[in-house]
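To whoever is on call:

I kicked off a structure prediction for a single chain this morning and the downstream step that reads the tokens threw a length-mismatch warning. I double-checked the sequence; it's 302 residues and nothing unusual in it as far as I can see. Pasting both halves so you can look.
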Amino acid sequence: MQPAALTRSGLSLDRLASFLAVVDAGGIAAAADKDPVRQSQFSRQLKELEEFFGCTLLERRRGMFRLTTAGHELRDLARETLARLGDFERRCTAQPTEIHLGAGEGILVWLLLPRLKAVLRDTSRVVLTLHNLRSEDILARLREGRLDFGILRRAAVPAALRSAALPPVDYALFVSRSTLPKGSPESAANLLSRLPLACLEGNSELNQALASLAADEGTPIEVRLRCTSLPQVAEAVRHLGLAAVLPVWASAAFAAVEVLKLDLPILKPLRTPLRLAWSKRQEATRPEIARIAQVMVQQFNG
């Protein structure tokens, strides 16, 4: 029996796609790239969707853009519907499956990329897109269906997500041989306090841990450069003679450079368990998600 909704006009895939574009951009003007013609089109299509469903989808006032409860529900439904139609089309036309994965840049560069050759070999019908994102953005996009996978600290993964254990992050002090102070310092903490450091900007988990470590040891640290990613920090060690506390995977960045990796006992508490996370809803509607997750976990832990 044909649903009554299909006898009325106002609902279409194009309107749903426009709705998602507006939601993802955070407003009509941003989605339309300030093109007045497209702004008018988006406004009309949103109004038609609201009239069709008989409810308000977006609260739109000056300086505010917010989804209503109904808007949140339609966003998830529309994203899932369009994604499944896209998957169906790709299967019918023998195109590869599109998979999106989010993680911090250090994880992408030093942990994921060295293992991707085997992953891509074992998932030959997959095109993988990598996104350099902060943890809060990864979680938001997983909830909204804009990411298929995320790599996160174990403590950041909510119970609502599926997840599997990955190798933990261990940290070491990286310093060029020429920067290392002459003579042996009294302790590892004193060594840290005698070196000019590069680190991440902001209040990252690693920065918080280093600050706590310095406070516990009673030895201040001297930060000379703040960067937006750990690979940038590694480049500062390579080219500027600065020291840095980095994941041990960063050793690959210094293969042909006179940089020492010092495994200091005081850095052991910084060890961070990681997990590969994905949406239960995505797994239920896209059968390939579970298979790809299994392949990735095998390669990471192999």
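Update from on-call: the warning came from a stale cache, not from the record. Cleared it. Sanity check on the structure: The radius of gyration is 24 Å.
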